[in-house]
Amino acid sequence: MSAISIGQAVILGAVEGVTEFLPVSSTGHLKIVEGLMGIPVDDDAVIGFSAVIQVGAIAAVLVYFSKDIARIVSAWARGLRDREERYHHDYKFAWWVIFATIPIVLVGLAAKPLIKGPLASLWVVAGSLIVGSGVMWWADRTGRHKRGEDDTSFKDAMLVGGSQILALLFPGFSRSGATMSTALMLDLDRVAATRLSFFLGIPALTGAGLYELKDALGTGAGAAPLAVGTLVSFVVAYASIAWLLKFVAKHSFNAFVVYRIAVGVLLFGLLGTGVLHS
């Protein structure tokens, strides 16, 4: 019998789609919802399921930004053949994304026992939600928002890409929250920070989903729930991306900060009263 039902897969897919690219921690929300539905958050099949349905959200990014991605990949391919093309920003940006993914891959492989063990606790999620809120508030408040996407550099990509490690080790901190906050600290404007977060997340999250696929299928997650959860994640994530880009063009991140603190406090309360178990 599958560890996750079709109905649960629909709910978790929707949660993943809504929260993957919002700076509110998709991992944290998935763990909270799993706990409320009585699903063991530290079960190998459940952890694998959560990683695999992220691929649906990543597919949404690939479709939404297909023209940008095609332009960047094309520039990279041309640069491999033509030295003159290597001065093009898109060619360099493609390499930056590759290099910026290496740190999270190395840490993910080395720290896998911790990530699937003690750090998977809902107590960690609650604390990370609140601490990450403080970081986001400070970054948005102090960042000068003066640099656009064309002003990004190799240093920016490495620092923003490396910040994904915080979310990997501390579920609840939020990959999007960490990368957007870091980009804001580097004085990128909110739209540029958000788009950079999207592009840097593509290889990391896709790799994590594919890596976990065999474990998710082999430990009882079930092929049908995986397919349904991934499809729902794709549809909801696409709508979420479109909404977020419009939102950050005109608003600060304060709404997300307040929301994260509220969820973190609520989670501490649920854990402290025994409604949820870590």
Secondary structure elements and their pairing?
Layout: H1 6-19, H2 26-36, H3 44-64, H4 66-81, H5 89-110, H6 112-116, H7 122-142, H8 154-162, H9 164-169, H10 175-185, H11 190-218, H12 223-248, H13 254-272
Helix pairs in contact: 1-2, 1-3, 1-12, 2-7, 3-11, 3-12, 4-5, 5-8, 5-11, 7-10, 7-13, 8-10, 10-11, 11-12
Q: Can you characterise this structure?
A:
The protein is mostly helical and 278 residues long. The protein has one domain. It has 13 helices and no strands. It has helices spanning 6-19, 26-36, 44-64, 66-81, 89-110, 112-116, 122-142, 154-162, 164-169, 175-185, 190-218, 223-248, 254-272. Helix 1 runs antiparallel to helix 2, helix 1 runs parallel beside helix 12 (223-248) and helix 5 packs parallel to helix 8 (154-162). The protein starts with 5 loop residues before the first helix and ends in a 6-residue tail after the last helix. 47% of the residues are buried. The mean pLDDT is 89.
**Helical proportion?**
over 70%
Separate helix tally: 13
Order of helices and strands: HHHHHHHHHHHHH
Q: Summarize the main sheet.
A: none
Beta-strand residue percentage: under 5%
- Give the overall average pLDDT: 89
Number of domains: 1
Query: Radius of gyration over alpha carbons?
Result: 18 Å
Query: Which spans have pLDDT < 50 for at least 5 consecutive residues?
Result: none
Number of strands: 0
Class from helix and strand fractions: mainly alpha
Q: What is the first-to-last residue Cα distance?
A: 24 Å
Features:
mainly alpha; 13 helices; about 280 residues
Summarize, please:
The protein has 278 residues and is mainly alpha-helical.
